[in-house]
C-alpha cells in the first residue's frame, strides 16, 4: 500500500503524522511511504532522517494525497478537501461532531475516515487519544500558571504560593486522562486541587491514591457552580468519545469567578465544556487567550502542537501498530480483526458510522455490520 504523510497546515501545528520509526515499520511490512518535504521539521525530524528510514520525499501535498492511505495528526482543512478521493483511508484525529463541513466533504468523496479519538478498547480506554490527552493535561496547568500572572491578565498569583501565602486553587472538571495529568502537575507545583467527575468509582480510586492531596467532588450542576466560583484556575477536561462536549460550565457560572481567574478548556476540539469558550471558538498558539467577564480564557484546539517533538513521538508510539495493520490487511480486514480499531470508523461509502457524529450533525447513523 502507498501511505502518504502530508505537512500539517493548521495554524501553529508543528506535529507530523509519523516518525522515522513509523516509516521503518511500514517499509519492513512491504509498503511504500511518501512524505511531503519538510513535514517533520516542526518536530525536529529532517527529510534526511525519513529518507534513511526508507521514505520517498515528495514536493507537493497533491502527490501525498494521491496515496491509498493518509496518516495525519489534525483534521483536514478546507484546502485539503479537494484532494480527497473515493476509497481513500484517512487515519487521523477528525473530531467530526464539531466539523460539519469536513464531514460533508468526507461523505461526498466516500472517504474511509478512521478517527484516532474514537478507537476504543473494550474497557473503555482510548489508546490513540490517551497520549495527546496526557500532554494536553500536563500543559493545561503549565499554561494556566502563566495565565495567572499579572502581565498575562491574571490576578498575579503564584501557583504554589509561598511561605505564609496560600497556594492557588485548581479545579479540574473531568477525571480522565487529561484531568489526572493536570492534577499531577498542579499538585507537583503545590496547588490545592479539586477534581470533579460523575464516576464515583473513579473518584474513589483517586481518593485512595492521593488522599488529602486532592479533594474529590461528585459532578453535578450544584457542585460545579460552587467549585467554579472558588477556582483560581479551572481546567475543563470533559469527554464523550466522538460526540459534542456538554456545556457543563455556563456563562452564569463564569460570571461568578474571581477577577483575574483563568480557564483552560481542553475539550474545545469537541466543542468545549465551557459556554464562553464554546461561543468564542478555537484559539491558536500565536494568540491563545481572550478575556471575558474579567476571566482569562484559553481555548487552543491543538495544545500538544506547542510541544511538537514530544507529541509526535508519543502519538506515533500509539498509532503505529494500527497503522501497519491498516496498510497490511486493508481497512476492512484490519477492523474485522480488531474491534477497537473498528470503532474508529466514522465515515465510509458516503455514510456515517459513529452515533456521536450523526447525533451532532443530523445524519442517519449506520451500523458497522453493514460494512464489516
Provide a concise account of the structure shown:
The protein has helices at residues 20-28, 47-53, 61-65, 78-81, 100-108, 130-147, 177-188, 200-210, 221-230, 251-255, 275-280, 308-329, 331-337, 339-342, 355-361; strands at 2-5, 32-36, 56-58, 69-71, 89-92, 112-115, 169-173, 192-197, 214-218, 233-236, 262-265, 289-292, 295-298, 345-348, 351-352.
Descriptors:
372 residues, alpha/beta, Rossmann fold, eight-stranded mixed beta sheet, 15 helices, globular
Structure overview:
The protein contains 15 helices and 15 strands. With 372 residues, the protein is an alpha/beta fold. It has an 8-stranded mixed beta sheet, sandwiched between helices. Strands 9-8-7-10-11-13-12 form a 7-stranded mixed beta sheet, sandwiched between helices. Helix 6 (130-147) crosses helix 7 (177-188). The chain is globular and about 65 Å long.
The CATH homologous superfamily of the largest domain is named: NAD(P)-binding Rossmann-like Domain
- Count of domains: 2
How many DSSP-defined strands?
15
Largest sheet: 8 strands, mixed
- Proportion of residues in extended strands: 15-25%
Amino acid at each position: 500500500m502507498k501511505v502518504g504523510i502530508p505537512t500539517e497546515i493548521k495554524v501553529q501545528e508543528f506535529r507530523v503524522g509519523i516518525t522515522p520509526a513509523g516509516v521503518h515499520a511500514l517499509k519492513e511490512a512491504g509498503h511504500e511511504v511518501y512524505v511531503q518535504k519538510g513535514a517533520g521539521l516542526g518536530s525536529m525530524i529532517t527529510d534526511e532522517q525519513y529518507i534513511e528510514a526508507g521514505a520517498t520525499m515528495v514536493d507537493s501535498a497533491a502527490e501525498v494525497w494521491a496515496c491509498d492511505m493518509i496518516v495525519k495528526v489534525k483534521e483536514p482543512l478546507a484546502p485539503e478537501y479537494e484532494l480527497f478521493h473515493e476509497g481513500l483511508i484517512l487515519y487521523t484525529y477528525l473530531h467530526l461532531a464539531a466539523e460539519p463541513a469536513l464531514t460533508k466533504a468526507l461523505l461526498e468523496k466516500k472517504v474511509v475516515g478512521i478517527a484516532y479519538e474514537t478507537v476504543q478498547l473494550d474497557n473503555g480506554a482510548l489508546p490513540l487519544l490517551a497520549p495527546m490527552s496526557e500532554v494536553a493535561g500536563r500543559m493545561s496547568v503549565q499554561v494556566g500558571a502563566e495565565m495567572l500572572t499579572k502581565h498575562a491578565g491574571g490576578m498575579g498569583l503564584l501557583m504554589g504560593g509561598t511561605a505564609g501565602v496560600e497556594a492557588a486553587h485548581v479545579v479540574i472538571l473531568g477525571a480522565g486522562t487529561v484531568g489526572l495529568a493536570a492534577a499531577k502537575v498542579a499538585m507537583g507545583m503545590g496547588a490545592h486541587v479539586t477534581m470533579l467527575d460523575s464516576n464515583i468509582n473513579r473518584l474513589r480510586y483517586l481518593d485512595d491514591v492521593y488522599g488529602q492531596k486532592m479533594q474529590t467532588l461528585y459532578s453535578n450542576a450544584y457542585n460545579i457552580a460552587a467549585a467554579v466560583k472558588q477556582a483560581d484556575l479551572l481546567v475543563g477536561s470533559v469527554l464523550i468519545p466522538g460526540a459534542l462536549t456538554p456545556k457543563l460550565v455556563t456563562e452564569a457560572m463564569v460570571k461568578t469567578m474571581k477577577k483575574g481567574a483563568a480557564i483552560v478548556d481542553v475539550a474545545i476540539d469537541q466543542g468545549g465544556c465551557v459556554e464562553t469558550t464554546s461561543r468564542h471558538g478555537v484559539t491558536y498558539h500565536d494568540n491563545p487567550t481572550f478575556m471575558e467577564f474579567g476571566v482569562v480564557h484559553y481555548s487552543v484546539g491543538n495544545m500538544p502542537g506547542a510541544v511538537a517533538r514530544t507529541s509526535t513521538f508519543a502519538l506515533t508510539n500509539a498509532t503505529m501498530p494500527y497503522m501497519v495493520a491498516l496498510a497490511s490487511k486493508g481497512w476492512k480486514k484490519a477492523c474485522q480483526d480488531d474491534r477497537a480499531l473498528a470503532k474508529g470508523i466514522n465515515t465510509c461509502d458516503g455514510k456515517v458510522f459513529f452515533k456521536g457524529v450523526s447525533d451532532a450533525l443530523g445524519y442517519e447513523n449506520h451500523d458497522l455490520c453493514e460494512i464489516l
